């Protein structure tokens, strides 16, 4: 979720998207009759079946009271003793926005462990802390957690990459199920917390995110995007979904019929579905322009499967008015209201709210927050999340016994940055602290952040830009004289010219509050990151200081405004023409200072990476995948000065930078309070790294199609289809030991479509130290009617082996999991084919293979004589899949002459004589749909004339006689101009 402007800060302060936990309504919670408490109403009796309790409470609520419960901020019902309830506490990698709490690695780091049992423990700890906060929260803060995020990391440029788990649906499903199950707890009746999975559906870009359209052909929808959501929902590991901001095939996700038709069908128990923040208002003119009024939009969302409206901050008035109006106008009926209220009451009952004792989790106290056990778990998880990307000539691990001097340098060496959804760090172990602590008194540690220290002198007046020296800083002014500490700033570069300025006088960053610039910020932060600047060099060597905070949405860095000073020396913003010109006097060169620190060191550790609030985050995609140029130059200079250089790369996503001569590279996410301990644990070999990449690291942005192209099949996107040479492949990660794989053995070499085989492989630790190996199972279907992935993850196991020991890893492989979506019949199909069974250490490091014959079916030739949905094409050019109506259904939308769709291998028999189609043409005039055989410019079998229908949702039936349409052909439908085709037949 994200606000659209300053007025929505209140919404953000209350929380955003998260992930679901599904638990049912068949709970009974029996208690001995003699022990049953006396209750005022049956709904408070935990001995009754849950359905009966919900029925009782629902009957007691008035219609007006029920409607008020459909807003995010559910008010109290005093006459029934019901307290307020609020949906949406953020908990992606720890409880966020409520004060200091245990901060675990970012979500992509959690998945990098490939360790579902560990992630379930993390989820359980976060659930405990959410309960711990419950005792002291403001009234209404609740236990509906908005986590995990399961949107696939289809494109590494996505600003919210840190929030997801993987580009692979299977891995995403395993990790999200583990985390959700931990959040939810193990009680068979009650919930510790109620997680909501997000964001449904196909949400992997921030660019124009409320109006962009994720176009999903049926195979991509079924095999990829839906596949990420299904596992946690089917396992009852989440209790609902959050709809996303974007459109899916032309229809806003807020009113997507899949919220009912698909998602609820997966779950065994009732779900509680919510909108993203302010999404109901996005349906209106000025944004998605899908419905003219809130009443119509809210009614459509309710009928589609939304149970709770996150809109207008804490004020439910607009939602209540809209739903009341919808009821009065007959757009919804009271049964629709009751259905949604049942869903939300089910969650509140299962959380124990209406039990006399609050349920089994009510006694969890605040003492669990940042407890010693959770600190230890945070360190363990940060250890397991680190990926060793490169380790030439066994440069790592370092031997603490022989090191006399270690240098730890770089802009992230002695700081920990937090992201938008992070909790507040209770303490911070930076890489410098971790290394210093680990080395102890046996050696010395030198350091440098490797950033320039600069004084800015107004070229015209000679006055220096000056900050305050107190803890709270001061308004920046220009003053004459020399530049002492108050006139010096450390310049941190984050790429694309953007820098942050930290005052030397008090260690605080310079920020803007809309009126003045002050050095009072602990780090770049906030929805509008108002601590960003660009130093624009002029021909005379002077610099203009451009303010680059997100004060507007005009472009990535906002409108171009610059610093100048008035006659009193007070800074203000102005245009480029009136901007002050500053001479940037370098007090201390960052690269030179770092080089001095690493000279003569037995090892140089350079810590570089991203700033999560700047380089890419919610509402802002990355436009460049490279590391900041200054950081890249720092690494190269350090390596030149000290050949034993180790790079610690701390980012929320893949980067494209390579350092050919750097012997070792570690990657970690922003891993929370224990980051520095984890880095030191791995550097010195106290922990043998076993993290693995969960997405492809590309060599260049040129390897990627357009960000908004969601057709991973056509564009060869992700490890599933990518044919290029990645920088680091999906599943990659090195160890300080080595592992030998035996030949994979199959329990059977042939399997029926509903059968299962076991893949067994002997794995031996051939090194001299204990370590973990992540054994990965992939398959590839050799023959198919349709384009198949080059490789696809089917299972994995993380195993621990002592030096010299072996184990047999056994991974089940279900033939049903080898199915793909058959567009010719609109169902899953397991084809008869031989599958390569691939076992290895990554998607590109295959150590052994076997062949498995699957006795499935042969997809028959297409039969186009019945009604065929146009969206079930095999291939296309130019067209988009669009909404057939506002409520449900999909059509094909052509935009210009020559757009086409094809239906391959169609059996037309002895001859089809007539083409019939349902077509909508919003524009005036007439157009045509041509039926061509073999290719878009192949033999013309018929032409149907299409006249304007006046509306994109008004369809007319058109026909055309066919000639020569016999035998077996690829049938192409070629469009003359803009129109929509929903269904057709050739008879």
UniProtKB/TrEMBL annotation:
Leader sequence residues: 1-24
Stored Gene3D superfamilies: 2.60.120.380, Galactose-binding domain-like (2.60.120.260), Glycoside hydrolase family 3 C-terminal domain (3.40.50.1700), Glycoside hydrolase, family 3, N-terminal domain (3.20.20.300), Immunoglobulins (2.60.40.10)
PROSITE patterns linked: CBM6, TAT
SMART domains attached to this UniProt entry: CBD_IV, Fn3_like
UniProt entry tagged with the keyword Signal: yes
Top-level division of the source organism's lineage: Bacteria
Keyword Signal in record: yes
A GO MF label: hydrolase activity
Residue ranges annotated for the CBM6 domain, each copy included: 866-987
CDD domains linked to this entry: beta-trefoil_FSCN_BglX-like, CBM6_xylanase-like
Keyword entries, A-Z: Hydrolase, Signal
Family label: Belongs to the glycosyl hydrolase 3 family.
Name of the molecule in the record: Glycoside hydrolase family 3 C-terminal domain-containing protein
Upper taxonomic lineage: Bacteria, Bacillati, Actinomycetota, Actinomycetes, Kitasatosporales
């Amino acid at each position: 979720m994200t606000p659209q402007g300053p007025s929505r800060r209140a919404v953000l302060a209350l929380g955003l998207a998260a992930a679901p936990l599904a638990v049912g309504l068949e709970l009974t919670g029996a208690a001995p009759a003699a022990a049953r408490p006396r209750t005022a109403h049956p709904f408070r009796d935990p001995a009754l079946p849950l359905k009966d309790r919900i029925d009782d409470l629902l009957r007691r609520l008035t219609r007006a009271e029920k409607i008020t419960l459909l807003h995010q901020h559910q008010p109290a019902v005093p006459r029934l003793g019901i307290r307020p309830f609020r949906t949406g506490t953020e908990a992606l990698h720890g409880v966020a926005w409520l004060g200091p709490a245990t901060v675990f690695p970012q979500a992509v780091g959690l998945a990098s462990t490939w360790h579902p049992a560990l992630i379930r423990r993390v989820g359980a700890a976060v659930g405990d802390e959410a309960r711990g906060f419950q005792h002291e929260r403001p009234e209404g803060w609740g236990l509906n957690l908005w986590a995990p995020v399961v949107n696939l990391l289809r494109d590494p440029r996505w600003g919210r990459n840190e929030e997801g788990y993987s580009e692979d649906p299977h891995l995403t499903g395993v990790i999200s199920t583990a985390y959700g199950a931990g959040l939810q707890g193990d009680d068979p009746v009650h919930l510790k917390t109620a997680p909501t999975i997000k964001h449904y559906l196909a949400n992997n870009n921030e660019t124009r995110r409320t109006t962009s359209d994720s176009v999903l052909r049926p195979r991509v929808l079924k095999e990829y995007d839906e596949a990420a959501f299904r596992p946690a929902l089917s396992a009852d590991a989440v209790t609902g979904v959050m709809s996303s901001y974007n459109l899916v095939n032309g229809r806003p996700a807020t009113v997507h019929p899949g919220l009912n038709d698909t998602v609820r069908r997966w779950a065994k128990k009732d779900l509680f579905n919510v909108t993203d923040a302010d999404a109901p208002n996005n349906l209106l003119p000025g944004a998605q322009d899908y419905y003219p009024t809130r009443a119509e939009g809210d009614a459509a969302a309710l009928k589609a499967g939304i149970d709770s409206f996150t809109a207008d901050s804490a004020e439910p008035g607009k939602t209540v008015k809209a739903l009341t109006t919808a009821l009065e106008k007959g757009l919804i009926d009271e049964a629709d209201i009751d259905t949604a209220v049942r869903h939300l009451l089910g969650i509140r009952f299962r959380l124990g709210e209406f039990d006399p004792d609050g349920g089994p989790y009510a006694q969890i106290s605040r003492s669990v927050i940042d407890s010693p056990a959770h600190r230890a778990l945070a360190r363990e998880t940060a250890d397991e999340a680190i990926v060793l990307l490169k380790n030439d000539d066994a440069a790592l691990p370092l031997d603490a016994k022989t090191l006399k001097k270690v240098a730890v340098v770089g802009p992230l060496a002695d700081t920990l940055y937090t992201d938008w959804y992070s909790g507040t760090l209770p303490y911070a172990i930076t890489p410098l602290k971790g290394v210093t602590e680990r080395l102890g008194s046996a050696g010395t540690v030198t350091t440098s952040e490797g950033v320039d220290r600069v004084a800015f002198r107004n070229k015209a007046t000679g006055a220096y830009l000056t900050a305050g020296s107190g803890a709270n800083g001061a308004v920046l002014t220009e003053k004459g004289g020399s530049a002492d500490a108050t006139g010096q700033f450390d310049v941190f570069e984050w790429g694309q010219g953007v820098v942050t300025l930290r005052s030397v006088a008090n260690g605080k960053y310079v920020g803007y509050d809309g009126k003045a610039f002050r050095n009072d910020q602990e780090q770049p932060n906030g929805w509008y990151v108002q601590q960003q600047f660009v130093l624009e060099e002029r021909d005379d060597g002077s610099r203009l200081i451009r303010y680059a905070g997100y004060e507007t949405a005009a472009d990535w860095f906002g409108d171009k405004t610059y610093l100048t000073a008035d006659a009193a020396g007070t800074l203000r913003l102005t245009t480029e023409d009136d901007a002050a010109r500053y001479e940037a006097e370098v007090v201390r060169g960052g690269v030179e200072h770092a080089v001095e620190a690493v000279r003569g060191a037995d090892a140089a550790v350079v810590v570089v990476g991203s700033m999560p609030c700047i380089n890419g985050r919610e509402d802002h995609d990355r436009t460049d995948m490279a590391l900041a140029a200054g950081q890249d130059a720092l690494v190269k200079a350090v390596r030149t000065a000290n050949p034993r250089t180790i790079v610690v790369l701390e980012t929320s996503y893949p980067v494209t930078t390579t350092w050919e001569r750097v012997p070792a590279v570690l990657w970690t996410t922003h891993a929370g309070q224990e980051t520095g301990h984890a880095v030191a644990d791995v550097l010195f070999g106290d922990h043998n790294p076993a993290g693995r990449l969960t997405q492809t690291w590309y060599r260049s942005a040129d390897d990627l199609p357009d960000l908004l192209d969601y057709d991973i099949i056509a564009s060869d996107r992700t490890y599933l289809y990518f044919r290029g040479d990645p920088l680091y492949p999906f599943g990659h990660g090195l160890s300080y030991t080595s592992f030998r794989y035996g030949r994979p053995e199959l329990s059977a070499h042939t399997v029926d479509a509903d059968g299962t085989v076991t893949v067994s492989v002997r794995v031996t630790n051939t090194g001299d130290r204990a370590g973990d190996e992540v054994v990965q199972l992939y398959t590839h279907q050799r023959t198919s009617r349709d384009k198949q992935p080059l490789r696809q993850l089917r299972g994995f196991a993380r195993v621990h082996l002592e030096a010299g020991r072996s184990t047999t890893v056994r991974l089940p492989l279900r033939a049903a999991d080898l199915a793909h979506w058959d567009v010719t019949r609109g169902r899953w199909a397991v084809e008869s084919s031989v599958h390569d069974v691939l076992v290895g250490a990554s998607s590109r490091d295959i150590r052994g293979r076997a062949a498995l014959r699957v006795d499935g079916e042969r997809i028959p030739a297409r039969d186009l004589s019945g009604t065929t949905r146009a969206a079930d094409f095999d291939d296309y050019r130019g067209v988009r899949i669009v909404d057939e109506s506002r409520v449900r259904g999909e059509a094909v939308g052509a935009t210009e002459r020559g757009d086409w769709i094809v239906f391959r291998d169609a059996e037309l028999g002895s001859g089809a004589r007539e083409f019939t189609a349902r077509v909508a043409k919003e524009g005036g005039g007439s157009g045509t749909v041509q039926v061509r055989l073999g290719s878009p410019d192949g033999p013309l079998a018929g032409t149907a004339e299409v006249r304007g229908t006046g509306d994109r949702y008004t369809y007319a039936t058109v026909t055309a006689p066919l000639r020569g349409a016999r035998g077996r052909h690829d049938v192409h439908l070629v469009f003359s101009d803009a129109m929509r085709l929903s269904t057709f037949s050739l008879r």
